[in-house]
Protein: Glucokinase
Amino acid sequence: MAWLVADIGGTNARFALVDGPGGAPRHRASLPTRGYPDLAAAVAAYLAGHAPAEHVEAACLAVAGPVGGGGFRLTNAGWPADTAERVRARLGLPHLEVVNDFEALARALPSLGPDDLIPVGGPPPTGAGTLAVLGPGTGLGTAGLVPTPAGPVPLPGEGGHVDIPAVTEREVEVMRLLRAERGTASAEYLLSGDGLVRLHRFLSMIHGVRTAPPTAAEIVERRDDPVCAETLETFCALLGSYAGNVALTFGARGGVYLGGGILPRVVDVLRGSAFRARFEDKPPVVDYLRAIPTALIVHPCPAFAGAAARLEQSLTALEAA
Structure:
């Protein structure tokens, strides 16, 4: 009997089956999130198209949005709010859980090996102590992982919606433009795929440059364009300040890990940027932050391992009850 695991973002809904805890993902597939009206429809399409002969015993679906009280909402996909029980009943599965996507990613951190990580400053990551993970993609996710005698406990949240940590005069100008346009200066409005586009537009306005608005992918590719280059540099600098805030909030002395779909495509920019300097530049706690490792996750889909770990914990508890 198989377990269904999924990582559902605002752009892509990724699915796989695993044969219990520690099982390698199989029947992996990615579907366009906006191609389906809701979560149950996307799951049904995956099972029908990629695993029609499989008997699924349990499922853990990690979604990019707040989860609580049995309900969930995908923040950047336009899907209606729903409940895990309603999704389970529609699919006819014996057991189904919905968790925040960064909760699943946090649960996966202890399973990541050296080949899954690229260091981006500080001492080598050890995985010991309190950990934090954040990642710009369609949105901006954040979570922590706290060690306890009973095992590590994930702490998901909506940290991507805190205020943008502007430091330089140029960043303050950008923040003012953002606040004038959106009525708020949420970090996700700049530190995400759409945020890259928005940041490029604001910098173009500041420089008085008139260009056709590029996509996030085009900004990543056009390293020789001055505004695109400044956009990526500013993005990484702001992310460094944000990551330092996350480290301090969680007390993540064990390390801050970077996920999401954008950063693996700009590794060279990230490592050569002000990211790490801005991460540490928070007097009077510079030494505290200097001792915290930061690393980029390059594993193709670590949330699968986190979802499987959640299922193992839940099903073991049900058997023991």
Observations:
- The longest helix spans residues 226-250.
- The chain has two domains: 2-107+301-320, 113-298.
